[in-house]
């Protein structure tokens, strides 16, 4: 079992930046993959980025260049740095962890709201 708690969301002006955090209830060093997704009103949940236990990062093409994922194993935390935010980035952002079984189990946080507006 893995509990995930996101934080760092809020209201930001277009062009601004935010850093989201996702803290896990256990060591993330052995979690196969951690990632971020988002869901805007009336839309399906969308994959943003993932990072493996080996530190390999992958990004959705539309997110490359503005979003960056990182992890701090000592703090059991994964971060999503978001720059040059646009109104269309407004969504609930969710943390995900895949681990602990075969097939892998998927765990979700409760989400954090990001609103980009002037």
Main beta-sheet annotation: 7 strands, mixed
Number of DSSP strand runs: 11
The rough form would be described as globular
What fraction strand? over 45%
Number of helices: 0
- Estimate percent helicity: under 10%
Q: Spell out the helices and strands N to C.
A: EEEEEEEEEEE
Instruction: Name the poorly predicted regions.
Output: none
- Rg, Cα atoms, Å: 14 Å
- The N- to C-terminal Cα distance equals 40 Å
The average pLDDT score comes to 95
| Class inferred from helices and paired strands | mainly beta
Can you characterise this structure?
Helices cover 0% and strands 52% of the residues. It has 118 residues and is an all-beta fold. β9 (91-99) and β10 (105-108) form a beta hairpin. The chain starts with a strand and ends with a strand. The mean pLDDT is 95.
């Amino acid at each position: 079992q893995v509990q995930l708690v996101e934080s760092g969301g809020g209201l930001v002006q277009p062009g601004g930046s935010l850093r989201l955090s996702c803290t896990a209830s256990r060591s993330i060093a052995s979690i196969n993959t951690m990632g971020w997704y988002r869901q805007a009103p009336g839309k399906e949940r969308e994959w943003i980025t993932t990072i493996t236990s080996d530190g390999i990062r992958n990004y959705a093409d539309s997110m490359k260049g503005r979003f960056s994922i990182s992890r701090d194993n000592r703090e059991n935390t994964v971060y999503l740095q978001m720059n040059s935010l646009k109104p269309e980035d407004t969504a609930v952002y969710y943390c995900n962890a895949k681990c602990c079984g075969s097939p892998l189990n998927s765990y979700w946080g409760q989400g954090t709201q990001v609103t980009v507006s002037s």
